[in-house]
């Protein structure tokens, strides 16, 4: 499965967002995702499996718990693909930064 296909699902994107903040237990992930998306525990487990099987996450057992962590490797594939298109927004972001800085300077000048 291609990285964009994996992240094409909003539930899996949300799980990646959760894991970007650090390692989380499967129970914690399930609780958050069930509250936000209203899906069952088995459905959350299936999304975790897709992420794991496609290299976006890895799991390690800790007693009875399963702790998931983000594997950023597949995100590099997306970053590389996006690299071709950065030129379309990089200049605009630089211009925005310039305008923001001018606004700050103008506010400080009495």
Automatic annotation (TrEMBL):
Statement: the UniProt record of this protein carries the keyword DNA-binding: yes
Signal peptide boundaries: none
Segments crossing the lipid bilayer: none
Pfam families: HTH_5
Keywords for the protein's UniProt record, in alphabetical order: DNA-binding, Transcription, Transcription regulation
Positions of the HTH arsR-type domain: 1-90
InterPro entries: ArsR-like_HTH, HTH_ArsR_DNA-bd_dom, HTH_MetalResp_TranReg, WH-like_DNA-bd_sf, WH_DNA-bd_sf
Top-level division of the source organism's lineage: Bacteria
PANTHER family: TRANSCRIPTIONAL REGULATOR, ARSR FAMILY, TRANSCRIPTIONAL REPRESSOR SDPR
Protein name: Winged helix-turn-helix transcriptional regulator
């Amino acid at each position: 499965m291609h990285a964009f296909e994996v992240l094409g699902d909003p539930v899996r994107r949300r799980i990646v967002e959760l894991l970007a903040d650090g390692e989380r237990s499967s129970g914690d992930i399930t609780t958050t995702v069930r509250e936000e998306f209203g899906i069952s525990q088995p459905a959350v487990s299936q999304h975790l499996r897709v992420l794991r099987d496609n290299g976006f996450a890895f799991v390690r057992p800790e007693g009875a718990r399963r702790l998931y962590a983000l594997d950023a490797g597949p995100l590099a594939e997306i970053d590389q693909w996006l690299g071709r298109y950065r030129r379309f927004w990089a200049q605009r972001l630089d211009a925005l930064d310039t305008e923001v800085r001018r606004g700050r300077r103008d506010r400080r000048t009495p």
